[in-house]
Amino acid sequence: MxxxxxxxxxxxxxxxxxxxxxxxxxxxxxxxxxxxxVMDKFYSKLISNMHKTLTREQVDFKIMRKxxxxxxxxxxxxxxxxxxxxxxxxxxxxxxxxxxxxxxxxEKELLRLAEIKLKGNKKxxxxxxxxxxxxxxxxxxxxxxxxxxxGSIYDNPVDLSRPEIPxxxxxxxxxxxxxxxxxxxxxxxxxxxxxxxxxxxxxEDDIIAAYLIMKRGCDVIAITDNKKLAEKLLxxxxxLEIIEFKKDWTDALKTxxxxxxxxxxVNGENLKTMTxxxxxxxxxxxxxxIGIDDKKIKEIRTKIFD
Length: 306
What we know:
By secondary structure, the protein is of the alpha/beta class.
């Protein structure tokens, strides 16, 4: 389902008694592997990157921080989703319908959603519930109750592992969020939490290499003779320092080291194209494309350039 169709669906579902918020639920991944102080620092950086990126793209929005989640309220959800899909640190996002945590109300909305998604076809489905907070009923009991309500009307097969139509409910204290669609994001770590590197940008492979290092949390200083190509990285970072050169990039590298304290040098060489850069550069040299097969590189290229 297209992003626009998802929101049209939720607007249709929303009744007069339920406030329809143009909300996007944002999830992050690796941050939870860190200690709490580090996690808080990384999470703050992620929120800052989201804010700066959306501001740069001139969209109206409001970011709300919740436990384990961030929510973006916007009047332009299609554009915001396309922007956030490229932000390192976010693992996935979903446009959601927010309603009060009331079992009967949630059941009513799930039945209306099921009517649209399941009626007239044989697609598999399942009710999936995640819960945060204290409630009188468990997540499994919620799934059983709402699953029984849907299953008593529609004879579509149930698939608890990989349903074609997931009827998702995320309960967070006194609110609930209903959604069916989830969009995968860049993943990795927020840009700017792991220091600064200099990246030589002359080819598309160099862009891919810089992008992969950005996903590991590094700020990138782009050293390039093709500014338009280097600016492709702006889709994944809230800010990008570009140092242009005409013939010799070594002076630009010195500037990146002295002015921006670059700690490593990145380029898009692989085992077939690798040169002996170590004899001329004192910095550690990172070649992230080594070890990545052509199919995976093609997938990454599509994410960056499409």
